[in-house]
Amino acid sequence: MQKYVAAIDQGTTSTRCILFDHDGNIVAVDQKEHRQIYPKPGWVEHDALEIWERTQHVIRGALDKFGTHVADIAAIGITNQRETSLVWERETGRPVYNAIVWQDTRTDAICNELAKEGGQDRFRKKTGLPLATYFSGPKIKWLLDNIPGARQRAEKGELIFGNMDTWLLWNLTGAHVTDVTNASRTLLMDLKTLEWDDEILESIGIPRVMLPEIRSSSEIYGHAKGGLGGVPLAGDLGDQQAALFGQTC
């Protein structure tokens, strides 16, 4: 019996679900845009609950367009906009604030403060990255500093963080995980150990307990619930890394 792979592409402006056959041919696509929220100049946000709703919609849409059943799906893979950052309640799954998108520049003052010791390259030796508003770490700090009670709740393990891959993985399977390609864009992972770096976490002020487990980009993280019930979720790659791999580089 022919089996298919369902690829979920959670991008900056829309979410797509693409079904591929065994030879890598596209057999169905469904796509839905989500809102871009601009509360202030330089601020860019997404409604994470809207993105999850759109994700469920395009999964159903792709299956319906091809007329296939969940039993025909061998595995699910996720690729995603990378540095867009979200904090939500472990117990309820409710975000404490909108997702802060990768283009957002509100963490400029946080980055400047961190650069006072060691300059813009303070964490580059470990992470490969300069201090910049682009990355997730300063965004997490902004959320913990600006949402009432967030830091205390995060330290108690009540709040958890993820980029959009982790958010979808968590909603699909209940697993709180990310892969190395997404973790490498947070400014918090040591490229040699592929683990969260305690020294950087302390410097920025982020409790380790709120961070997802870092796993490889290709393994079974869990099995889906809901519309894709029982299907293994077996791939997770940041957008640019997935494109690089897809071009066989």
What descriptive keywords fit this protein?
249 residues, alpha/beta, six-stranded mixed sheet, two-stranded antiparallel sheet, 9 helices, 14 strands
Q: How would you sum up this structure, described in words?
A:
The chain is α/β, with parallel strands linked by helices and 249 residues long. The chain contains 9 helices and 14 strands. The two termini are 31 Å apart. The mean pLDDT is 95.
Can you give me a brief rundown of this structure?
With 249 residues, the chain is an alpha/beta fold. It contains 9 helices and 14 strands.
In percent, how helical is the residue content?
25-40%
Beta-strand content estimate: 25-35%
- Mass-distribution shape: globular
Low-confidence stretches: none
Number of strands: 14
Overall structural class, as computed from helix and strand content, comes to alpha/beta
Task: Give me the strand/helix succession.
Answer: EEEEHEEEHHHHEHEHEEHEEEH
What's the overall average pLDDT, rounded? 95
Largest sheet: 6 strands, mixed
**Number of separate helices:** 9
Strand order of the largest sheet: 3-2-1-5-14-13
Work out the radius of gyration.
18 Å
Q: End-to-end distance, in Å?
A: 31 Å
Secondary structure topology:
Elements: E1 4-10, E2 14-20, E3 26-33, E4 45-46, H1 48-66, E5 73-80, E6 85-89, E7 99-100, H2 108-115, H3 124-127, H4 136-146, H5 150-155, E8 159-163, H6 164-173, E9 177-179, H7 180-183, E10 189-190, E11 195-196, H8 198-204, E12 213-215, E13 222-223, E14 232-238, H9 239-246
Parallel strand pairs: 1-5, 5-14, 9-12
Antiparallel strand pairs: 1-2, 2-3, 4-7, 6-8, 10-11, 13-14
